[in-house]
Amino acid sequence: MCGRFDKHTSNEWIARQCFGRALSGPESSPRYNVAPGTPIDALTRLDAETVYISPMHWGFRPAWAGKDAPEPINARAETVAGSRYFAHAFAHKRCLVPADGWFEWQASDAGKVPYYITSAPDTEGVLFMAGIWEYGAGDDPVCAIITEPAAPSLASIHSRQPVVLDPACLEQWLDPELVDREAVRRMVQRRDPESLRFWAVSSAVNRPANDSPDLLEPITPGT
User: Which family does it belong to (predicted)?
Assistant: First the structure.
């Protein structure tokens, strides 16, 4: 799954360095412990020329679904295109959620150990997680991050992971004219999991109120 991540790279840097464009949308402050139910930065392309970076509520409940509908933070890659709840968004409202890394919890005899997963040195630093969005109540955008079975190199930590896209297919993922689900699946390329690194971090990340760079520092499990 993907239930917590960090994003400290600025939107301005992402827009210019990853897309070659000036920022369209608000800047945001660094966040080292982004939790569900809060606004997260998401990239959309609503026309042929402009990429927008704007906040969306992390929890997918479209306005049409009603106030008692579920509010999932993740959508499974295996079923997202055919699900009544997600299919329209997958076809017409795909987004990217930029992150510097994400957290997963590994089960152990001593309890769950948090790990931080991020880019290896000398690789593309920002990760782009595949997402979907819709308008929620009051026309405020809501989103979910798409997940899939974990790559073998990450499966020892958790059985699932976010779909992290290769930089080569970011524009296609955002293309509003690409609506056929098989065409989308053929187009999507995952980032090479060998370009990722991970390490255990402090259990302080368990509390969403903790939000500082030291949450990313490696520790020895059990300390």
Answer: Belongs to the SOS response-associated peptidase family.
Average pLDDT of the chain to the nearest whole number: 93
What residue ranges define each of the domains in the chain, with the CATH number in brackets? 5-102+124-194 (3.90.1680.10)
pLDDT value of position 25 = 87
d(CA 39, CA 102): 16
Buried b (16+ CB within 10 A) or exposed e, 45-74: beeeeebbbbbbbbbbbbeebeeeeebebb
* CA dihedral sign of residues 25, 27, 30, 31: negative
How many CB atoms sit inside 10 A of residue 178's CB? 16
What pLDDT band is residue 56 in, cutting at 50, 70 and 90? very high
* CA dihedral sign, ordered 74, 167, 81, 53: positive
Q: Concatenate the DSSP letters of all residues of 151-174 into one string.
A: PTTTTTT-SEEE-BBPGGGHHHHH
* Type of residue found at 9: T
Torsion 55-177-173-89 (CA) sign: positive
pLDDT at 222: 64
- The closest of 149, 99, 93, 104 to 129, measured between CA atoms, is 99
